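> run fold Transposase
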Amino acid sequence: MTNKLIGSKEALEHFQFATINGKIKFNDIGKAVRIARSYSQVVKSAIKPLFEGRSVEELTKSLYNTLPNYIYLETAITQAKTIVEGLLDREKGEIIHAKVKKFWFASRGNKADKGNRNVKFHVEEGHVVVRVRDPWSKEWVIGRAYFDTKYLPLLRELEELSNKREDGYGAVISFKDGVKIHLQVPLWLYLKYFSSPKSTGYGVVAGLDLNSDRFNVVVVDRQGKIIIFRTWWYTETVSHGYSKDKAKVLRLGALSQSLKFLAKIGVNYVVFEDLFVIKSRKFGKSKKGNRKITRFAKKQMLIHGVIKALRLGFNVILINPRGTTNSEEHERLMRERGFDRHTASAYLIALKGFEKLNEYK
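> ok
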């Protein structure tokens, strides 16, 4: 049976692509840097007007002189909009934090443009030739990209699909720790090349609760009976001064270990909260707690977890998180079963997964 991703239409829109990364060398790095400077300026310039209610279409016209290419502009302003939505404290009605430190540029994909209007690629032996459109001269900036060789067959097929206008891909060029290219390839194509077969399970569901210092899993059967529950800890990641990059490695490592464990015990479905329906972060009075919130990229971990689960052959369910953390049922579970807060959440996530599965069928 082909593994499935089950969730709302809005949730599934966030899982259309998987990103593969490579290094790139441009023949004229100066032109590429100029695009990035203008692109970053557009993102910074768009944040306040977007917060004030101006539309993407309106800003695309007003910022055209800064970056004279509509696809680059739309992509930059859409990213600025995402930043505003992610940092907006809707209870106070103000932007909490709006600094843009990244130095990059991006171009959204479109199959009608043979994959992408501004970034083209051609797979050659051992490397990939990349062409990036200069928005001022309209000419191409040529680069040579180096991906892991395991990605080359996928890129060859994506190149064919793009030339036939059957699929598209997004592209990002970043300048942190060297010049890199990030291609957003269709998820179905990525899974075609990198999924592993999974043994038949027993029809049970695992609820997964992601947190900044731990990862909780509860496995239940169709009657709601708990088969097993476990916690993977990484408490050092929330220590003051702990490296953000090291914390990311530990968290993703724990997530990978837990999914491999679930595959061994015969789980068919893994259930995550759909974090994209949460519009704001909840900040409290605790400075330590707020630091955990701001340093923990929970949505990035969710995306990684969903794609990893699909690669391992699980069916994945995304549920609305309403009631899984603060509700009468949540409090009752902690009181009657002696669960900690996060184990109770994982249990409720699993039960909601069965409800979603029944709706899907």
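Residues 17-188 form one domain.
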